[in-house]
Amino acid sequence: MTRRHFFGRGATGIGMAALASLLKQDAEAAALPHHKPSAKRVIYLFQSGGPSQMELFDYKPRLVEFQGKDLPDSVRQGQRLTQMSATQSSFPIVPSKYAFARHGQSGAWVSELLPHTAALADELCFIKSMHTEAINHDPAVTFFQTGSQIAGRPSMGSWVVYGLGAETEDLPGFVVMISPGGGGGGQPLYDRLWGSGFLPTRYQGVKFRSVGDPVLYLNDPPGFPQANRRVYLDALGELNRMKHAASGDSEVETRIAQYEMAFRMQSSVPELTDLSKEPQHVLDLYGPDATKPGSYAYNCLLARRLAERGVRFIQLYHRDWDHHGGLTKGLPQRCRETDQASAALIRDLKQRGLLDETLVVWGGEFGRTVYCQGRLTADDYGRDHHPRCFTMWMAGGGIQPGLSIGETDDYGYNITADPVHVHDLQATLLHCLGIDHTRLTFKFQGRHFRLTDVHGRVVKPVLRHA
Amino acid sequence: MFLAWPGCADETIRFNRDIRPIFSDRCFACHGPDQANRKSALRLDLEQAAKSDLGKGRAGIVPGDPERSEVYKRIVSDKPALRMPPAYAGHAPLSERDGSLIREWIRQGARYEAHWAFLAPESPRRPATRLSGWIRNPIDAFVLARLEAAGLPPSPEADRTTLLRRVSFDLTGLPPAPDEVAAFLGDSAPDAYDKTVDRLLASLRYAERMAIRWLEAARYADTNGYQSDGVRDMWRWRDWVIDAFRTNMPFDRFTVEQIAGDLLPDATTSQIVATGFHRNHRTSAEGGIVDEEFRVEYVADRAETTSTVWLGLTLGCARCHDHKYDPFTQKEFYQLFAFFNNLPEKGFVYNFGNEEPYIKAPLPEQERKLADYDARVAGLRHELESRQPELERAQRAWERKIASGKPLDWNIGEGLVFHDPLDGPFQLNKARQFDGKDFVLGGAEVGRFNYRDPFTFAAWIKPESANGAILSRAEDYFEGQGHALYLIEGKLRLHVIFRWTDLGMRVETEEALPLGEWQHVAATYDGSMKAAGVRLYVNGKPRKLKVLFDQCIWPIDSKEPFRIGAGGGLRFTGAIDDVRVYNRALAPAEAAVLALLDPVREIAARPAAQRSAVQADKLRMCFLDRGAPKDIRLLRARLALAEAQRKLYHDQIPTVMVMAERDEPRETFLLKRGAYDAQGDKVEPGVPAVLPPLAADWPRNRLGLARWLVDRRNPLTARVAVNRFWQMLFGTGLVKTVEDFGSQGEWPVHADLLDWLAVEFMESGWDVRHILKTIVTSATYRQASAVSPALLEKDPENRLLGRGPRLRLSPEMIRDQALAVSGLLVEQTGGPSVKPYQPEGLWQELHGGKGYTPDSGEGLYRRSLYTYWKRTVAPPAMVNFDSPSREVCVVRESRTNTPLQALNLMNDVTYVEAARKLAERMMREGGASPGERMGWAYRAVLARPAQAREIEVLESAWRRFHEFYRSNRREAERYLAQGESRRDRKLDPRELAAYTGVASLLLNLDEAITKE
Which residue of chain A comes nearest to B795, CA vs CA? Predict the structure, then answer.
C-alpha cells in the first residue's frame, strides 16, 4: 500500500482482510496519480461573496462612456437576474471608481486596490473568462467547492485526499481556515463546503480555528497535563491490545493507532501555530496582521507552514466580498485585508522553492454586474451577482506565469473569448495534481460520481508551457 | 464474487447474481435504458434486444455460443478500436474474471432473469440443514444453510452479559444498568432472554432509539439548511415519530400517515402532523433566489426521498435523463414528482420560523390550557352581555348629561402612540401647510414598528400635488427601507420595506384621490406579514386595493426619524392635519370614527334616530371609554386582558409544517435536463411501469401513492424496510446498498432470508416490534462476535453471518452511554430541541451573529436525539462519529475510525464531565479500595466483571495520576471544574481527579464504544 493518508494510515497495521475490503472500496482511486503531477498540493484562497472583477482585474475603459445609461438589452440577452435586482426599475451602468494600470513584463491589468498583487503580476495567470451556473451564494459556493449546486457531494479537497492521500502523518491532509472579513462577517459558510459527502468522513476537511482549540478538542482538559495523557494512553493501549487479542477485530488495532496519532497531533498542531521562530522579515512580508490569529494574513502564513509540512489541500476562506451596496467602502477594506498577504504567500513559497510544487488559486463564487444595484450616489454604488463572467488567478505548480486568458465584452457582461467553466477549473486543478478528472470516481447510489460530474475539460492554455 | 465462496456448490451462472452487476456497471450506460445515451441498436438490459439480429447475421448474444456472440467477441478483442467497453472513451477493459463469467453464462444458454427486486417476494421454502439443533427460528435455517454450503460453522452463543449489552444498545440505544445485568444473570428461566427483549421493546427508550435513524432518513433538523440557515420548528413531528414507535404503529399506517395523513377522511391533528415528514427538506431564504427554481428543488427532494426510503431506488437519477441502469424513464420521475407538486408553497421561504402551510399542534396539556383560556374569555363576554340592558340605560343618561354639558370632543385613544394636531386643537382651517420642500419631524421613536407589528397611520390631508409623502419612518429615497404612507399619482400607497427588490410589501388604492380637497386617510396593517392584512381608508371607507408586492418576511429596524410630509425622497404639497399613529390595526368601524369630525356633544344632542351609524359608533365608543359605569369599564378591561392572555398563550403553542393540497391543482411537466424553466410534456401523477400499477379505486394523489407503497403487491417497500432493520442490528444490510435495490445495487447474499423477512413483516400486519424481536431472538443474532483468523480470512465482512456483529456504537449511543453511566442522563421524552455543550465560536466563524448558547441544566444532559441540529454547522460531536449532516436523506450507516474521534472522546467537556461524575460514583458506590472501585466501574460501563490484569493496568494508571494530583491540588481542582454539574465536595479532590482520569480512560476503551 503506497498511498498514505493521515486518517487512513492506521490501515497499514491492519490485517489483510480488512485491507482487502478497504481496497475494494477505494479501488477506483488505486492507480493514482494518472500522470506526472506538476503540483503536489493546493492552496485555495477562496474569496467568499463574489469579488467584483470590474474593480479589480477586468479593466473596462469604455464604461465611462456608458455611465448612468441603462444596460442595453442586446448585451443582457434576457439573462436571468437575481430577484434582488430583477424588479429594479433601471439598470444604470457604473464604471469602476478605481484606476487601472498595466503591470510587469506581462502587462497585466490590475487595479490600484491591489498594489501587492499587481507587483507580482508576472507570477500569476489571470483567467478573466470564468463563468458559473449559479446566481446565488449558497448554490454557487457549493458548486465551486463540490461540483454540484445540491448538497451531498464531496468537496474538492476531499476528492484530492481521497485520490492522493497526504504527505504527512502528523497533520490532516485537508485543512480549512476561515477569516471573517472586517465588514461584519458577510455571507455564511457551510460545513458541506469541506465535507466529504458520500466519501468516507476521514476525507473531510479539518477546520483550523482561531477561537478555542485550533483543532476541535485538541487540547487536554485543564489540569490534565501531557504526562498524564501519556500514562493514560499507555494504559488504554494495553487494554485495547488485550481486547484485540480476544476479539480478533482489526478495528481495535486501528483505534489504537488513531489514539497515538491524536497524541502526535497534540504537539504537531501547536508547533505549527507557533510563529515565534518566523523571522521578522517574513512576518513583515505578510503585513501587520500576520501574527493575529483569525486574520487572513495569519491564515496565509499558516498555509505556507502547512504546505511545508506536507498537507495536501489547504483551503482558505475570506468572507464578506458581497457588495450589493456600499462597494466603495467595503471593497477597498477587503483588498487591504487580503492583498498583501496573498502576494506574500506567493513570494514566500517562491523563496523557499515551494511555489513550483504548490498550486495557488484565488477567486470567488461568481462576479458582479456592470450595472448598479440599489442606490447610485455620487460616491457610492453596489453591484449584484453576475455568473456570466468573472476573474480568478492561479499561480505556481504547473501554471504558466505572466499570462492572462479570456476576454469579455466592453460592458464586462459577456465572455467573448476562451470561456472557462467551474468544472473546467476543477479539471485543471486535478490535472496539475496528476489526476485525470474523468477517472477519479466513487461509486455511490449505483453511479460513479466525480468532482466534475459529466463535464469539465482541462484548460490547456494556462498550463505551464514546456 | 460469490462464486469465490469456498464450497459453493452451485456452478450455474445466474443472470441477476453474476451477470447483471457487470452489465449494469460497465455496459448499461450506453446499451441500457437511457434512450438518449444509447450508442447503438444493441441493448443488453432486455433479453430480446440482446439476442436479436443486428444485421449481417450478427447478434449481441448467441445463446450457447460465446465465440459467435458479438458481446463476448468485443469484450475480449485485443483491437483497441473494437474492444468494449471502449478504450477511446477512457474505459478500462473488463477483468478476466468478469469476461469468463460472461463467457460461461452464454455457454450455459444466456438465460435472463427479471430483476429480482421488481418481483414481489414470496415466502421461500426453508432450506434443509445438517445441524438442526442450532436453529431457533426460520432466520437461522437460511443462515445456517448458507454457512454449511461454505463449510463454515456458526459461532457459539455470546456470553450473557455481552448479549444483554448488545441487545440493550440495539433496541434502546443505551447500555443495561448494573441491576438489569444482575437480574438477567440471575434469571435461569429458558425464556429469560425473550422476556428481556420484550421489556426493552416496550420501553420508551426503544421508541427514541428507533426514531433517530428515521430522523436521518427524513432529513429532520431545526434549521432550514441553505445560506443563512434560519430556524424552523419541526419537533412536534419528531415527537409524532417517537410516539408512533412507542405505540408500535404498523409500518403501513406509519407510511400512509406520513405521506398523506392530511388526505385521510376526517384527518386528525396527529395524522396531519405526521405529514411533516415531507416538509423536513431544506429550504432557502437567500435573498435573490428564483422562487420557482427552489420550489422545484423541494418537490424533487420529496420524490427522491420517497424513492430512497420506501422503494430503495435511485429514481433521482432520472431527473435529468432516463435512468442509466434501471428501467425508469425521465417521464416516470416527473410522474412521481407530480404527487408532491401540489402543495401551496413558495421557493423563497420565511427565515425566522415555519413556512406555510403549517398548523398549530398543541400538546395535550396545552390543549387543556387553551380550553381554560377560551372558557375564561367566553365567561367574561357572557357577563358583559348580561349587563347590556343596564349599559344601555347608563348610556342614555350619560348622553343626556353631556348633551347639555360643556363642549366635548373625543377620539379613539386606545393604542394611540403618537398624536400631532400640528396647530393646536384640531381645526382644519388651521392646518399645517407644506410647500413641497419642508417637513415636520415627529421624533426618534415614533412609528418604530417591525415587520410583524400591527399599526395604524392616519391623518387629514388636503393635497395640491398628486405625488408626495404623507407620513414615513423610512430612508429618504423611494426604494429605501422603512414604513411610509404616500400619495403616488394620486393613489394612497403604503410601503413596508426591508429591501425594495425582494423583501417588503407595497399596496395602493385602485383609484386616485381628488386634489384640493380635505380628506381623511388611514392605513392599517395587522402584522400578518401579508398584504392581505393591509387596509387603506379614505374618509373612513375602505378602498379597493392593488397589491404591488407581497413579501413582507424580513425584520425592519429603521434608524430614520418619523417625518410628516416627507420620506422616500418625496415631499408633500398641500395641508396636513391631525396626524395619528396607533400601535394596533384599527378596526373598520374605528377607522370610520376616526374620520368623523362631528363633536361628541353634538351627536349626543341629536335624537338617536337621527344619528348615522358612524355617529352612533363614535358616541358609543366615547361612552365606553369615558362614561360607562366603573365596574363595567373594569369588566371590559378584564375581558381585554383575558383576550390578550389567550392570544399570548396561543402564539407560543408550537406549530409544525405539514403537507396540504392546493385548491386548484398545479400542472406538472417533465423538466428537460431537470431545469426548472425548461418545461417539456405535461405529465400526470403515476408510478413506474416496471412496478405494479395503482389500483383503479385509489385516488391519483399522495393518498393513492401511499396505498400503493404499502400494497401487498409492491415488491420493494417491505424488503427495503426489513433490510434497514437488519442494517441497524448487523451494521450492514442483507442488501448492502440499502439505498439502491436497482441494477447497480448489491445482489443479496441471503436473498431468501430477505424475502422471508419481507413476507413475514407484511403478514404480521407490518409489525415492527415483531420483526425486530424475531431477528434478535434468532441464534444468528445471538452468536459471539469474536472472530478467528480462519473465519476472518474466509468472510472478512461477515456477509455469511457466521458470527455476531461487532461494531462501533453510533454517535448518539456513545454520548448517551457516557451520560447514562455517569448518572447525568436526563430522561424526558420530546419537546423542543436542546443545546448541549459545543465548542465556542463554531457558529460565528461560519455565520457571524450571536452564535450558539448552550443550555444550562437539564438541556445539557438529554439524549442526543434531542440535540439542536443546525444543518450548515452540524453538532461536531455527532458528525465526528459519522452522523449524516441531515441536508439530504441518508439511510446507509457508516463508521470510520479517526484521530478526531479520539480527541473528541478524551477532551470534549461532555466526556470530561461524565468521567468526573462516573468517578464520583466509583468513590461513593464502588467500595473502598481502588481495585474494588475499578471493578465496579467495569461493570457499570461494560456490564461485565473486570479481569485481574485489567484491574492491574487501571490501578497502575490511577496511582500515577494520584501521585501527580497529591502534590498538585490546584491542578486537580481545575481538572474537576469541567462541566456545569456540581462536584461532590465531600470527596477528596486529589483522589477524585485520579479516578476521573481512570473513568475517562474507561469511556475511551474500544470495548466501551463498541457493541460486541
Answer: A17
